[in-house]
Hints:
By secondary structure, this protein is mainly beta. 12% of the residues lie in helices and 45% in strands. The protein has a seven-stranded mixed barrel with strand order 2-3-9-5-4-10-11. The chain is globular, with a radius of gyration of 18 Å.
Amino acid sequence: MKKAKQTLLAISLFLSxxxxxxxxxxxxxxxxxxQAWSRATPGGAKIAGGYVTIENKGAAPDRLLGGSADxxxxxxxxxxxxxxxxxxxxPLDMGxxxxxxxxxxxxxxxxxxxxxxxxxxxxxxxxVPVTLEFEKAGRVAITLDVQAVGAQAPGDAGHSGHxxxxxMPDHSGMKM
Length: 176
């Protein structure tokens, strides 16, 4: 029984430390930005996805227009969605509106920040500074916590053994 309590205590302390490390909420105007993360990139990759949760606690909409980072030549806002049974990705050239009272979660397979023209690899454990640009809240500095290559969420160790990771093609010149 004592060993079980010690194990539970150790797990509890680990989870608390992990949530503290990833729980850096940033307030910008009426927006609360949390869970900013990315995945490690394979060698030679020129793109990476960035993920974040944005909550609008105000009475008016705000729009995420884009972003910038020293590690990337440019950052675009992208959306992945099913179209006639085919998953398609497209840039949101007009940005993404965050409606009042709503939360938008950027995650693999959905909305994401596309870091293009990477100047170096993202390694698990890295902290990547990014500046987001909002229509009303202005420029907001965040930090992407780099997770494992196959991570599906912050704090996820990836899916080793469950799927084969392949280098994503460079689609920076694609028109969608």
